Amino acid sequence: MQELIEIGLKKVLPGILINQIAFYSLYKILKNNECIVDVAYTVSHLVAGSIYAYHFGLSSFESKFKLGLLALWTARLAGFLFYYRIMRGFRDPRYDVIFQKYKKETLKRDVVVFCQYIFQGFIVFVTSSSLYFLFKNQLNPFQLAILGTSIFWIYFEGLADHQLQQFKDSKNKPQNSICQDGLWKKSRHPNLFFDLMTWTTIAIASIKSRHDCLALISPLVLYYVMAGLTVPLTERLMKKKRGDQFIQYCSNTNKFLPI
User: Fold this and answer.
1) What is the pLDDT of residues 228-258, one digit of tens each?
2) What is the predicted pLDDT for the residue at 157?
3) Distance of CA 62 to the CA centre of its chain
4) Global pTM?
């Protein structure tokens, strides 16, 4: 535990915050495209994992495999967000409240957004803590097999994002309709579910002793952020835009589980 705190505070947290500040600078350069914060979140996990990986050594194939899986998750999600959100100029309605409230007060808006980037950095510091155990421990074949299933979850998270994007790009969909294609027919947030499964898999695969159970803090905090912040905010906006149609969709569809 002491080693985790020491490495985390001296190396990982500063690395994450530097990355968040760099992405905030990019946010300003690209004329306040708020979706960059989501890319920053993803890349900051790779920064944290890379620091843990280099601290414990990257000479073995196992260590490279672990870092490769993390890089795959980052490249898939960050690439999707960069192309479909930033390159296409998508404006996220979740951040509209900030821009509307401080529409004429640019400095205050910038301070609020900057604080959001920094706060997110601290969240990443916690949610990436399972990576400490992942790179510290040498895994047995059974644990490596468990870790390997993360490829499955990464694929299905990507599939959920792809299905939703296809729906959004469709020119024949009814106005104000709700995506109920593929995985979205069974779950209101399948992409979040599979993302949570990725990090749960990483945490479980990393446990070799009872002290390593601290790795579970990562998916638990991630679930709390999803269930307590991301989902309620998204669904309030959907309810406002779609009304009774979205309420009916919620009554017939699980929040997370795609079954």
Assistant:
1) 999 998 899 888 888 888 999 999 999 999 8
2) 97
3) 24
4) 0.93
